[in-house]
């Protein structure tokens, strides 16, 4: 994100935006795009960036939907060609966009977007799936299901701990990177196991005649695969954990 | 659920951490390893002075009167220092067991534990080898699954079993159970033994957190100064990711241990499954810490002279103590798949008072 080249240059009481954003989540249906733009063209890395809220019906903005692995247009490329946005659409001070974006990324990587109930619910459905299809399921697979349920509980407990830390005056910092790694990998594991339990039906689309009771596991599996990629890949998160939490050399 | 700890428990933890950093250095641990008993009565006495041996002994009997939610903070420090003293057996298993037994036995032994004047070892069906039996002043031993006996050392025959961790001193114990030694039987004995198992496993889990944290810390320190290709090896992503993975496991184990401590202190209906989850999570975090910290150290970590193995051995000992991972996974599996434990959103703290 620190390599942003799309500029928003001041012209009176407007920013004039030039460039392109890729992987705008839900960009194909959105009315607004919230993003980081370089307002100081001579700046580098995370300096000189500003957080601006852009209505997508502004003249000079073109949205091109991108189809995902699951066939849905979940994100988009957005092109800006001299799009004029009022200065009042700025969030936070000019040049301080990085800290605004980091605050939102902290929420995106854990706590707010990824509520523990979501994974506890998936784990409970996985246990139910195992019960319904129990006959013939090998013991190691049963243990893996139990481990996933424990993972979802650990995620919930860690969220309680984070909230307790915030209540005691703490902040969400680099710890959000730990969350991101944990839930994204747990989510994939739960869906992989569900597909194993479904057996022959795992590959069937809902309209297939033999798909009865297959549910949405395949679709959710494809979505889960995006978890270790979006909001900063898990490799980047591991670098953050190592450098900012453990203090390893850059 | 609020995981904020009170001021007193946090102060107690900090006090113990500072004390052990001074008194339980790697050199001191190695010196204790070399001694005949593998234990330091002088250190045990000092631990008693700061309140650690009597942490779960009621204040009326000279103890600090804390519960398990504080005990796990202290045991994490014991793990961080690789403390080779019977804090798990005597302070967190035997003391509450004596408290629950009550009567003359509790009146005699609880003040002595708090004062650092007695070591009480516990033998349980889940661990046939009894830790610290060789230095115990009293042995609390199961006979089968439903009898508990209080046995004087003179009435027991010990066969010491040298083990991988010189800080873990274990023995097979033979004794003749009699009506005179029996202190509980039947349902009551089973309940006491179940509580002892949960306290022992919880204590090991808490200690494993500290071991894991220290393993990460040692590997970070070593890879930050050891250079290769003109850079600290810790600047390479392959090394960073090894240790980041351990950190993820550790931070997702700690609140599981804290919840188990709460369940034990509350006498939760789901105490056993919560403790088993804690033991699994913490010992698996420590096991990954063992593998990855050793790998990050390279050959020097594979030597006797480097201190890393003090914590490698603690991690292995803790896995062996109070139920191995397969035992605890079995308990969780039966609860979730067979016994209808409530699961899903909103169930995490069910079963408490």
- What is the residue-averaged pLDDT of chain B? 97
Total strand segments of chain A: 7
Q: What is the CATH architecture term of the domain at 188-338 in chain B?
A: Up-down Bundle
Compressed to H and E, one letter per element, the order of chain B equals HHHHHHEEEEEEEHEEHHHH
Integer average pLDDT of chain A: 91
Q: Count all strands of chain B and give the number.
A: 9
CATH topology of the largest domain in chain A: Butyryl-CoA Dehydrogenase, subunit A, domain 3
Can you describe what's shown?
- The complex is a heterodimer of chains A (250) and B (353).
- Chain A is 41% helix and 20% strand.
- Chain A is an alpha+beta fold and 250 residues long.
- Chain A folds into two domains: 7-94, Butyryl-CoA Dehydrogenase, subunit A, domain 2 (Beta Barrel); 110-245, Butyryl-CoA Dehydrogenase, subunit A, domain 3, CATH 1.20.140.
- Chain A has a four-stranded antiparallel beta sheet with strand order 1-2-6-5, with no helix packed on it. Chain A has a three-stranded antiparallel beta sheet with strand order 3-4-7.
- The radius of gyration of chain A is 22 Å and the shape is globular.
- The two termini of chain A are 18 Å apart.
- Chain B is of the alpha+beta class and 353 residues long.
- Chain B has a domain at 188-338: Butyryl-CoA Dehydrogenase, subunit A, domain 3.
- In chain B, 56% of the residues lie in helices and 10% in strands.
- Chain B is globular, with a radius of gyration of 20 Å.
- The mean pLDDT of chain B is 97.
- Classes of the chains: A alpha+beta (250), B alpha+beta (353).
- Chain A binds chain B through residues 116-117, 120-121, 123-124, 127, 130-131, 142-143, 145-147, 149-151, 153-158, 160-161, 164-165, 167-168, 175, 178, 181-182, 235, 237-239, 241-243, 245-250, and chain B through 1-4, 216, 220, 223-224, 231-232, 234-235, 237, 239-241, 243-245, 247-248, 251-256, 258-259, 277, 280-281, 329, 332-333, 336-337, 343-348.
